[in-house]
Design a protein that fits this description.
The two termini are about 20 Å apart. It is elongated, with a radius of gyration of 17 Å. It has one helix and five strands; from the N terminus they run βββαββ. A hairpin with a 7-residue loop joins strand 2 (about 10) and strand 3 (about 20). The chain is about 20% helix and about 15% strand. The chain has about 90 residues and is α+β, with helices and mostly antiparallel strands. The strands form two sheets. It has a three-stranded antiparallel β-sheet, with no helix packed on it. Strands 4-5 form a two-stranded parallel sheet.
């Protein structure tokens, strides 16, 4: 996977050339929004006993054998290899 400085993503298959893909970070943002709406609509989260609303974090994980090319080493820290996720 390659990420441009503008945040555009490209996939590099084993065979063939690179091709652009939709941003998995933007897709996860939409998933998080939908999940929050779903939990609120169905009243799944308890409102008593001082329990806080859940906090969702946006991470994109790729295969441990994959490669991530970033604009700078510290850019896009939420795009990681699955074997590095703790």
């Amino acid at each position: 996977m390659r990420i441009s400085p503008q945040g555009e993503f490209e996939a590099y298959p084993k065979e063939g050339g690179p091709y652009p893909i939709d941003s998995p970070l933007a897709q996860n943002d939409r998933h998080i929004l939908l999940l929050q709406r779903l939990l609120k609509r169905h009243n799944v989260i308890p409102h008593r006993m001082g329990l806080a609303q859940p906090i969702f974090h946006n991470y994109v994980m790729i295969s441990g054998r994959g490669r991530i090319d970033r604009p700078t080493p510290d850019s896009f820290p939420n795009v990681i290899k699955g074997d590095l996720f703790l």
